[in-house]
Design a protein that fits this description.
Elements: E1 19-20, E2 23-24, H1 27-34, E3 38-41, E4 76-79, E5 84-86, H2 87-95, E6 102-104, E7 111-113, E8 124-130, E9 143-149, E10 153-155, E11 158-160, E12 167-172, H3 175-189, E13 194-197, E14 207-210, H4 232-242
Antiparallel strand pairs: 1-2, 3-4, 4-5, 6-7, 8-9, 9-12, 10-11, 13-14
Helix pairs in contact: 3-4
Length: about 250
């Protein structure tokens, strides 16, 4: 196979069904291309390096995930973050991932597609505002109160427990706080706020635990899990972004 083999000239995000010699691409690759997350090109400049195999994109990919996809070894994917991959390398990347609907750029970790988690489906999230209550550092604002609740159950054949619920988190009722809570609603719907794992506090197995999106769960001034914390809102925004919620 040589440069230009694979999908037809002018193929783009709208051209679902990319294939080489009649072999459909991996479902996740189809999803991200079809949802306009990437651009599909058949040529590259001599300065473009594949973020996966580190070969120049005008050279062949080091990966041969399927003999029927050899034509993709020269085709180039340009992500919206402006990093480049061989189509074959992207196929290898998503084939090796447990994610079925998203992937991260190996260069900058930007997410493409819609990432989902394994948060139990029994969960509920409730949001209310208390204008009589303020948080340290945000005394001029009311407080957004977010309450999470789960019921114990079985998921994917594994029993999980819900010790420590309901859990309550607090955000300032200002523009930034409301924007973050809106993002948290999206992350909760995508099952990303919690996961099933070992409890850090008790050591218990198969518990519903936080999933690396930190929440302030105390209203006591100076508490480790409370306010004031001038950098917190920026940090939690970055944590949400790392999971594709922005």
């Amino acid at each position: 196979a040589g440069p230009g083999a694979g999908a037809g000239p002018g193929a783009g995000a709208a051209g679902a069904g990319f294939s080489s010699q009649g072999a459909p691409l991996h479902n996740a690759l189809q999803t991200v291309i079809s949802s306009s997350c990437v651009q599909y090109k058949q040529s590259g400049t001599t300065l473009d390096v594949c973020s996966v195999c580190q070969n120049n994109v005008t050279d062949a990919s080091d990966y041969t995930t399927s003999p029927l996809l050899l034509g993709l070894r020269y085709d180039k994917i340009t992500l919206k973050c402006n990093h480049h991959l061989h189509a074959q390398c992207l196929h290898a990347l998503v084939s090796a991932s447990s994610e079925t609907s998203s992937f991260r750029c190996p260069e900058c970790t930007k997410s493409f597609g819609i990432r989902t988690g394994n948060q139990p489906t029994s969960g509920k999230m409730a949001v209310k505002v208390d204008n009589s209550m303020s948080l340290a550092g945000y005394e001029q604002f009311g407080t957004i109160i977010v309450t999470y609740s789960f019921t114990s159950g079985v998921q994917d054949g594994v029993s999980y427990n819900t010790q420590g619920f309901p859990r309550i988190a607090y955000f300032p009722d200002n523009d930034e706080g409301n924007d973050i809570v809106d993002l948290i609603k999206v992350a909760f719907k995508r099952r990303l706020i919690f996961t099933i794992g070992d409890s850090v506090t008790s050591g218990a197995k198969n518990c519903v635990v936080w999933n690396d999106i930190h929440h302030k769960t105390s209203t006591r001034r100076g508490d480790t899990y409370g306010y004031p914390d001038p950098g917190y809102l920026a940090r939690v925004t970055a944590e949400l972004k790392s999971k594709g919620v922005e």
